[in-house]
Amino acid sequence: MKKSVGAKTLLFPTPVLLVGTYDHEGKPNLMNAAWGGICSSHPPSIAVSLRKERHSFAAIVERKAFTIGIPSEARMKEADYVGIFSGRDTDKFAATGLTPVRSDLVDAPYAAEVPIVLECRLLHTLELGIHTQFVGEIVDVKADIAVLGEDGLPDILKIKPLVFDTAHRGYHGIGPFLGQAFSVGKKL
């Protein structure tokens, strides 16, 4: 039996995404966003939704670019910090000790200490209630060598990405490998 809990933004889990932008003065900024994910395979694209009042909103509109960093469990405090304070009033890179790196492909920064970075060129915007969804074409993915598996691709267990619990507003890690996708179901 199920009980209705109402229309809420509950999805388990959601990613912790660090959105990197340059503001109108060229100052690098990061913000924590949980409303996002892959939205197209071709072209490879990611969507992230922000409110208009967020400092990063105007930066994405102006620069037509952003980065998405996937923070590891080891960077939980820094990831949380950049979601608490505004880049209008705070130099988040200085406050967290993270190192800004200028993307060589898009007009946006990322944090050197984040193991996975998606560099994105703005493709579309869509107004959705109090949020605007920004769809970015992923022009490159950069990964620390330490998080790559034997196949040369990022290994989720080496990345140890943070995930967000929308119901209880908490951070969690990733558990062990359970089974191969597009394979375990064939055993039914």
UniProtKB/TrEMBL annotation:
Cofactor(s) named in the record: FMN
InterPro entries: Flavin_Rdtase-like_dom (IPR002563), Flavoredoxin (IPR052174), Split_barrel_FMN-bd (IPR012349)
Domain (Flavin reductase like) ranges: 9-153
Keyword vocabulary terms for this entry: Flavoprotein
Matching SUPFAM superfamilies: FMN-binding split barrel
Coiled-coil stretches noted in the UniProt entry, renumbered to this chain: none
PANTHER family: FLAVOREDOXIN, FLAVOREDOXIN-RELATED-RELATED
Similarity section: Belongs to the flavoredoxin family.
Protein name: Flavin reductase family protein
